[in-house]
């Protein structure tokens, strides 16, 4: 396929909406057929010819560009259609490495336009996954939202987060999900997990009921119902991952988990790695060190599991009430917190959740 001048100029115009420097598009022979600088049209670009010869991105600083006819400092990337090199995208700028990410994202846009011009619907999931991963990463740069808009991803539409874990890999789930809910995003996370970002935040029960008919066995789902534009989805994603982790540990019986089911333990899971949370762990670490056979920790877990009911806890442990009282007094002596007093029990409960998250062991 030959890259047309009309298509090349469309790519340039889209790109220059979000980039301050000039953009050029070269054909497969290295001729500039689209440019933000009309004076450069239909001239040869030596940097592009190097990209064509080597089949890889070529970054040029001012010194290197001065040695190549028709080249300026910046970065040049190959454009492909179905594995065939059809042109080169060049972005001008002094710091080529700083341009690499926006240029790569623009390349995605250009290749989608090339596919569409050839009458072939591009694989949206394949083309947009790299951008979505950047967009959903903590601390994502604001310009990524503009790139997402160029690709038609509607980043400012508020979306919820639904994390699904299947019994076996479900490689086609993303295609189905994006057809099933318009303007939703899907990303595979691990071999059996998918993150699904849906506009509207409607309860997912009806959608989850459809999965068996598609051949997918849901092992567990975690839903964060609050909708966010793209700038808030990194945090919402972390909540979903923490919720799934906590549900596996505390409520393995729950298949469809929502944040309301385990809000406090999920919040604590997110606090575990923060140094300011250490004070909650310290009393439990002292208890664990002194509790060689684990009897006192087991008693504390059961105490909370039985809603601090002395009768129910003693019965569950097979103890006389006096035996339970003795253990609770030992816990108080070792931790400085009385599990029979509400405020102090709350600290112990939160500390126990942090301890059982495994984070303390991972730091030792």
What descriptors fit this protein?
about 375 residues; PucR_C-HTH_dom; single chain
Structure explained in plain terms:
The chain has 364 residues and is α+β, with helices and mostly antiparallel strands. It has 16 helices and ten strands. The chain has helices at residues 5-15, 46-54, 62-66, 96-117, 124-135, 143-150, 173-180, 205-210, 233-250, 263-271, 278-290, 295-305, 310-317, 321-335, 342-356, 359-362; strands at residues 23-27, 32-35, 58-60, 74-81, 84-92, 159-166, 185-188, 193-197, 218-228, 256-258. The strands form two sheets. Strands 2-1-5-4-3 form a five-stranded antiparallel beta sheet. A five-stranded mixed beta sheet has the order 7-8-6-9-10, sandwiched between helices. It is elongated and about 95 Å long. The chain starts with a helix and ends with a helix. This is Carbohydrate diacid regulator. Residues 3-118 form the Putative sugar diacid recognition domain. Pfam families: Diacid_rec, HTH_30. Residues 296-353 form the PucR C-terminal helix-turn-helix domain. InterPro entries: CdaR-like_regulators (IPR051448), Diacid_rec (IPR008599), PucR_C-HTH_dom (IPR025736), PucR_C-HTH_sf (IPR042070).
Percent in helix: 40-55%
**Low-pLDDT residue intervals, each spanning 5 or more residues:** none
Strand content: 15-25%
Structural class: alpha+beta
- The mean pLDDT is 88
- Quaternary organisation of the protein chains: single chain
- Globally, the shape reads elongated
Strand/helix succession: HEEHEHEEHHHEHEEHEHEHHHHHHH
Domain Putative sugar diacid recognition: 3-118
Domain PucR C-terminal helix-turn-helix: 296-353
Organism: Pseudomonas oryzihabitans
Protein name: Carbohydrate diacid regulator
């Amino acid at each position: 396929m030959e890259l047309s001048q009309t298509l090349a100029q469309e790519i340039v115009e889209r790109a220059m909406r979000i980039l301050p420097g000039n953009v050029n598009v070269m054909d497969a022979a290295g001729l500039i057929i689209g440019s933000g600088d009309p004076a450069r049209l239909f001239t040869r670009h030596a940097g592009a010819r190097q990209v064509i010869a080597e089949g890889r991105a070529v970054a040029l600083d001012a010194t290197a560009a001065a040695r190549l006819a028709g080249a300026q400092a910046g970065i040049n990337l190959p454009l492909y259609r179905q594995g065939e090199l059809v042109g080169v995208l060049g972005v001008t700028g002094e710091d080529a490495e700083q341009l690499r990410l926006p240029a790569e994202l623009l390349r995605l846009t250009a290749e989608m336009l090339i596919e569409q011009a050839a009458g072939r619907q591009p694989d949206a999931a394949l083309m947009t996954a790299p951008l979505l991963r950047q967009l959903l990463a903590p601390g994502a740069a604001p310009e990524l939202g503009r790139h997402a808009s160029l690709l038609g991803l509607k980043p400012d539409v508020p979306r919820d987060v639904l994390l699904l874990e299947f019994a076996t890999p479900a490689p086609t789930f993303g295609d189905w999900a994006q057809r099933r809910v318009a303007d939703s995003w899907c990303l595979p996370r691990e071999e059996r997990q998918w993150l699904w970002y849906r506009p509207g935040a409607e309860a997912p029960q009806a959608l989850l009921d459809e999965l068996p008919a598609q051949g997918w066995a849901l092992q567990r789902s975690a839903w964060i119902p609050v909708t966010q534009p793209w700038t808030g989805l990194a945090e919402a994603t972390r909540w979903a991952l923490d919720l799934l982790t906590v549900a596996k540990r505390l409520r393995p019986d729950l298949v469809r988990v929502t944040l309301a089911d385990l809000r406090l333990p999920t919040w604590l899971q997110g606090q575990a790695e923060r140094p300011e949370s250490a004070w909650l762990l310290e009393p439990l670490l002292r208890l664990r060190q002194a509790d060689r056979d684990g009897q006192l920790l087991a008693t504390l877990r059961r105490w909370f599991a039985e809603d601090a009911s002395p009768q129910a806890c003693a019965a569950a442990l097979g103890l006389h009430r006096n035996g339970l009282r003795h253990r609770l007094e030992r816990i108080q002596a070792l931790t400085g917190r009385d599990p029979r007093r509400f405020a102090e029990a709350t600290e112990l409960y939160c500390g126990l959740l942090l301890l059982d998250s495994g984070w303390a062991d991972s730091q030792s």
